[in-house]
Amino acid sequence: MNENLFDIKSKVVVITGGVGVLGSDIAQYLAAQGCKVVILDRLQDKGNELVAKIKASGGEAVFLLTDVLKKEILEQNRADILDKYGQIDVLINAAGGNMPGATIPPDKTIFDLNIDDFKKVVDLNLFGTVIPSIVFAKAMVDNGKGNIINFASESALRPLTRVAGYGAAKAAVANFTKYLAGELSLKFEGDYRVNALVPGFFVTNQNRDLLINPDGSFTPRSKTILGHTPFNRFGEADELLGSVHYLMSDASKFVTGTLLVIDGGFDSFSI
Q1: Buried b (16+ CB within 10 A) or exposed e, 170-182
Q2: Residues of the chain falling short of pLDDT 50
Q3: Which of 68, 153, 163, 268 supports an S-S bond with 170, CB 3.0-4.6 Å?
Q4: DSSP labels for 63-104?
Q5: Tell me, what's the pLDDT at 237?
Q6: First CA to last CA distance, the chain
Q7: Which among 127, 149, 134 has a CA at the least distance from the CA of 11?
Q8: What is the domain range of residue 39?
Q9: What is the C-alpha separation between 259 and 27, in angstroms, rounded?
Q10: 115 lies in some domain
Q11: Torsions phi, psi for 214 (to 5 deg)
């Protein structure tokens, strides 16, 4: 057999939260592999800059302004993508984030939790995955095939201190991933896969202040995390790329409803 199971060239890939630290790295990598990348985000200037960067490197990409919590906007995005490319092969739900009020620092307790912020974090991470999945899965079902990759989190697997709202939302994303995998395959003719990445600890814009002091040194939380990570370091954004590539390709064509953990051993380590 000479078939390249990892060939993803020419796939039309939609990435929500595409200008974030992780989303932008994924977008650039997939464009370099020959994918047609559609970047969805609220930050138009950054989106246009990312598209220009991809095109300067010989890749193909477009940016569309969106709001992952507004179904009507996403439906217009879908129509624009279908007008341009005729199909949507892959959706990567990379939009997400956290808010201070949905966290519980060491000097606070559960009774200090800001419920409004908690709801906003759940909305962004859970409904910001559910709504795009519903919208873009419709195009996939109409085409008889499709692939959805969600972003869960280490906090979906076990309750981590502080990140109460984010952990609850990502645990729900993990559950929804498994649910949608069965829903699409059982009820519709065709080939559909739904999986989720479970990143461990990567330094991003949303957690930088929790992990890195202004002088660049590690916070006490960082030291605790690294003490429970056999690799004894944080992940680099490009270390997610191979897992994304695998889940997009025919190398994983019998894989659905799974959570792929990329965490340097954090989840497997106890003491």
Answers
A1: bbbbbebbbebbe
A2: none
A3: 153
A4: EEE--TT-HHHHHHHHHHHHHHHS---EEEE------GGGS-
A5: 86
A6: 44
A7: 149
A8: 12-200+235-263
A9: 21
A10: yes
A11: -55, -30
Model pLDDT, residue 203: 82
Whether 230 is covered by a domain: the verdict is: no
- Taking CB atoms within 8 Å and a gap of at least 24, the contacts of 8-11 are 8/33, 8/34, 8/35, 8/245, 8/248, 8/249, 9/33, 9/34, 9/35, 10/34, 10/35, 10/36, 11/35, 11/36, 11/89, 11/90, 11/248
265 residue type, one letter: G
Query: Which amino acid is located at 49 in the chain?
Result: E
Distance CA 184, CA 259 (A): 17
d(CA 267, CA 228): 9
Q: Closest by alpha carbon to 65, among 37, 41, 84?
A: 41
The sheet that has 259-262: what strands, in order across it? 60-65, 36-41, 12-16, 90-93, 145-151, 191-199, 259-262
Asked whether the beta carbons of 138 and 74 are under 8 A apart, the reply is no
pLDDT in tens, 157-210: 988 999 999 999 999 999 999 999 999 999 999 999 999 999 999 887 777 877
- Sequence-distant (≥ 6) Cβ neighbours of residue 97 within 8 angstroms: 121, 124, 125, 206
Cα(9)–Cα(248) distance, rounded to whole angstroms? 11
Number of domains in the chain: 1
From 265, 271, 269, 270, select the one nearest 233 (Cα to Cα).
265
Residue 212 in any domain: the answer is no
Spatial distance between the Cα atoms of 58 and 52, rounded to a whole number of angstroms: 10
Catalytic residue IDs: 166
**Has residue 211 been placed in a domain?**
no
pLDDT, position 1: 59
pLDDT, position 50: 98
| pTM, rounded to two decimals | 0.95
